[in-house]
Design goal:
The protein is mainly α. Helices cover 57% and strands 7% of the residues. The strands form 2 sheets. Strands 1-2-3 form a 3-stranded antiparallel beta sheet. Bound molecules: zinc ion (ZN). Zinc ion (ZN) binds next to loops.
Length: 274
């Protein structure tokens, strides 16, 4: 989870909470933004402030005040400028690394500290070590490029160790790196679980509203509310056929029954107190 104690963390938390408030997974949001899930992860990771264009797109989709959010973003950028040294990586000691972003920074930093070897050189070093000892793994040039430029993280301990071999980091230091890698996996898992819980809770709160809107449109749901953008199996009362509908399309008046062709629309749920 981002460290809310500084302005970058505050912005990251704000973006994450706004997304969860809309019951959107990171993938849902990435799809709506038309960006990769990595962009969403970075924006909410608290390592560096995302570009303004990303923040502006968030504002357009989740419930955020544009003025307040812009102020928060400016504070984050100012904070980033204050802490940024000439080196492009900020990383805590490897024994303090907890988040994916911190590990990414540490991996990039290690590459810088070892004199920025080329990807070809790194591939050769790892390969030679692997041929000789059969320990760890080989390392492709594209992996070497991705880890050293902070684009992705090693997917396994063996790949991590191959990267360390490629940077000529002494083997006695490997266990610390492996521990850090494991902490990051744990962090990711627990955050994913927390996200899922939050989404479930929001769905539970919204379920009665969702069901009422479906019924107005002549649809009787046959399963639990899966969220506004997921297909939801329901019976169309006029033709008694089961199909799958998205609540959002129903609310937008864009849904129709694929069997009988009727257009379906629901009210907004306002002005119901007659
Ligand atoms: Zn029908």
């Amino acid at each position: 989870m981002a460290n809310a104690a500084n302005a970058i963390g505050e912005l990251a938390e704000c973006l994450r909470e706004a997304r969860l408030g809309k019951a959107l997974s990171r993938q849902d949001l990435a799809t709506k933004l038309g960006c990769s899930i990595t962009t969403v992860q970075r924006a909410e990771g608290g390592g560096a402030p995302p570009p303004w264009s990303t923040v502006r797109d968030y504002v357009g989709i989740v419930d955020l005040d544009p003025g307040e959010t812009e102020a928060l973003w400016k504070k984050a950028v100012a904070f980033r400028r204050k802490i940024t040294r000439p080196s492009f990586t900020q990383s805590p000691g490897i024994d303090l690394v907890r988040t994916p972003d911190e590990l990414g920074a540490a991996l990039a930093r290690a590459w810088e500290d070892s004199g920025r070897p080329s990807t070809r050189e790194m591939e050769q070093r790892a390969d030679r070590h692997y041929q000789e000892t059969r320990s760890y793994a080989s390392l492709s040039r594209s992996s070497a490029e991705r880890f050293s430029r902070r684009k992705s993280l090693p997917g396994s301990e063996r790949t991590l160790q191959a990267y360390l071999v490629a940077l000529r980091i002494p083997e006695r230091r490997f266990p610390m790196w492996v521990q850090a890698w494991r902490r990051v996996q744990h962090h990711r898992l627990s955050q994913r679980m927390a996200d899922r819980e939050q989404v479930k809770l929001t769905h539970r709160m919204e379920a009665p509203f969702a069901k009422a809107r479906m019924q107005e449109a002549g649809l009787i749901p046959r399963e639990k509310f899966p969220g506004a953008v997921a297909p939801w199996s329901a019976v169309h009362t006029s033709c008694a056929q089961v199909s799958r509908y998205r609540l959002r399309s129903v609310l937008q008046g864009l849904a129709h029954c694929p069997v009988c062709g009727d257009w379906l629309s629901a009210g907004t749920g306002e002005g119901e107190n007659h």
